[in-house]
Recover the amino acids of this structure.
């Protein structure tokens, strides 16, 4: 079975990548899939909206690169990843504003989704204040796991980071952390994304919190320039 890496260049070919992403995030369950999924639509409209929303985000983000691994024998997408290359401070000159998941209906469930995104994204404003790379998302179709697909997706970005002499970041799941560690990412912080206490949470709030299997565990990982971290010696930029 031949596996080849390609950069995704059009929304038409991106559709198959999103199909792979959704399959990957169902096994094991990843709450981010639910958080990003538009609500109140039929299955076809939901898929179309997901493709459009993610592709729009990609095209509106300078330095964004979607890559995919394709089985050359079947044409099936085996995995995908979005790498962002920031050649300047990604937060320089940006206005502070909250997250609004407009693809969720107004109400308590949207408020919960917004709160989770805020918990997830806020730490970046402290750590990612220099030119760097970010592995925004990475996934492998279940039938292709442990065949080197994840390594290919990660290596694409770490090679770029080394060529550009830049550090890199990723927010990992429990399952993904060992893969990133093998490529020079070092664990820095643990985020527990949870339903923050509210006065008398509604049944909708409690139902969604249960569906998302909160708290969501996120491992913030950092790859220093060159991928070499030595305890007690490597300088952590945002702690100096």
């Amino acid at each position: 079975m031949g596996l080849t890496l390609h950069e995704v260049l059009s929304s038409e070919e991106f559709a198959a990548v999103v199909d792979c992403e959704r399959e990957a995030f169902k096994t094991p369950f990843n709450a981010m899939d639910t958080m990003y999924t538009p609500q109140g639509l039929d299955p076809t409209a939901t898929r179309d909206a997901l493709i459009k929303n993610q592709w729009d985000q990609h095209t509106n983000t300078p330095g964004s690169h979607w890559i995919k691994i394709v089985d050359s024998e079947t044409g099936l997408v085996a995995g995908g990843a979005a790498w962002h290359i920031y050649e300047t401070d990604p937060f320089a000159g940006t206005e502070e504003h909250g997250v609004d998941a407009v693809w969720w209906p107004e109400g308590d469930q949207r408020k919960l989704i917004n709160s989770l995104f805020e918990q997830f994204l806020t730490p970046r404003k402290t750590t990612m204040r220099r030119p760097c790379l970010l592995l925004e998302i990475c996934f492998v179709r279940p039938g292709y796991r442990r065949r080197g697909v994840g390594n290919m997706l990660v290596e694409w970005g770490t090679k770029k980071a080394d060529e550009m002499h830049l550090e890199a970041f990723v927010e990992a799941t429990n399952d993904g952390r060992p893969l990133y560690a093998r490529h020079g990412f070092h664990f820095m912080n643990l985020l527990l994304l949870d339903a923050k206490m509210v006065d008398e949470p509604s049944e909708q709030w409690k139902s969604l919190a249960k569906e998302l299997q909160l708290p969501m565990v996120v491992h913030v990982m950092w790859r220093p320039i060159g991928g070499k971290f030595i305890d007690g010696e490597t300088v952590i930029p945002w702690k100096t």
In short: The chain has a mean pLDDT of 94. The longest helix spans residues 43-59.
